Prior knowledge:
The chain has 11 helices and 8 strands. It is α/β, with parallel strands linked by helices.
Amino acid sequence: MPEETAVYTHGHHESVLRSHTWRTAANSAAYLVGSIKPHMRILDIGCGPGTITADLAELVPDGHVTGVDQAPGILDRARATAAERGLENVEFAVADVHALDYPDDSFCVVHAHQVLQHVGDPVRALSEMRRVCKPGGIVAARDADYSAMTWYPASPVLDDWLDLYLRVARANGGEPDAGRRLKSWALEAGYPAADITASAGTWCYGSQEERAWWSGLWADRTVASSYAERAVEGGHADAGQLRAVADAWREWGERDDGWFAVLHGEILCRK
């Protein structure tokens, strides 16, 4: 069976989890929430620390949620998240989206948030997601589109950050501009065009608190995470260049007129 060939760019440094644990169904899966019914069985792929997974479990009190991730270590954090919220209709397991260890037609909803940008074969992944989805069910995916991110005021060093991130992510085998490609990948995976609903969503950081949080986590990620290690090891940047990018993030975060928007592509596919 196919196996993952890409390397996960971000890793699970504290600066990464600072972002991942902020995510909820409301701010990261609103395009899907209206389609969820209380009885549904849901597969949440790439669940990470489990905050979205736990929200989904609360939406299906008569159903069940399975959260899966390729990194075994993060699942302890996800289990703790579910336990803290008293959820008993959720479980977690290790899985590769290219070769899911579930029978055909197992789940009412198969969901992946910020996953397809990091995998080696997103078309194969979407095909597997469709296989384990029940007839009449939903395959849902949402991914950021890095080249579509925009900010103010202009910063040449943040331009360098974006160029660097794109190079590192692609060298790791992923596609950081996944958002704009989701519908195309779904068509290539065999989903009929009439069964695909494509949309877009955003995250926006404009208040003083939001800017401090977003700039701080990216400043830390740029010098201390797996992304930083791969940037240096791959010859994409040296430590001095990474420090300069981190400084630019913090300087931007201190600007009263600072504003940053993240565009996401979204697809809901009926089986």
